[in-house]
Amino acid sequence: MSSIDPLENIHEKYMRQALVQAQRAFDVDEVPVGAVIVMHEKIIAKAHNQVQLLKDVTAHAEILAITSACESLQMKYLPDATLYVTLEPCLMCAGALYWNKIGHIVFGAYDEKNSYRRVTEKNPFHPATTLEGGILQEECASLMQAFFKAKR
């Protein structure tokens, strides 16, 4: 018998897709954060940071993925969806995720410098939203570290 948690495998599967998006950001000299939104075991949106390209400080992967998913589904709330993002959300993205009422958030690397936790100890997400961190944490963090190492 296997003791592998099937949910963990699902989380890793979709986090790998978020990592593909993060690599796309890295390749165009954007901070390498990628996101995918999944609903009913189907990816409904993909995005990566585009702050430099769009010259817009709000063009974070999470925001762009929410916009894409909502446009695609023609709805503003995603309580049945899961966001997979390679980096712990910042306070701005946490606010957008709160208003979007997304059902689940799964992130890769922790961000001690810029995450929502730096500003508030309270849970900034919708009360019904579940949060899980550290999925493929090393892979997510290493891409971020490589990006900033190249900048120095």
Fold and architecture overview:
There is one protein chain. With 152 residues, the chain is α/β, with parallel strands linked by helices. It contains 5 helices and 5 strands. It has helices at 6-27, 51-54, 61-73, 91-100, 137-151; strands at 34-39, 42-48, 81-87, 104-109, 130-132. It has a 5-stranded mixed beta sheet. The radius of gyration is 15 Å and the shape is globular. The N and C termini lie far apart (48 Å).
What is the total tally of β strands? 5
Parts with pLDDT < 50 across at least 5 consecutive residues? none
- Helical amount: 40-55%
Shape: globular
With strands numbered from the N-terminus, the spatial order across the biggest sheet is 2-1-3-4-5
End-to-end separation: 48 Å
User: What Rg do the Cα atoms give?
Assistant: 15 Å
Structural class: alpha/beta
Q: Give the helices and strands as they follow along the chain.
A: HEEHHEHEEH
- Indicate the proportion of strand residues: 15-25%
Sheet with the most strands? 5 strands, mixed
Mean pLDDT value: 93
- The helix tally amounts to 5
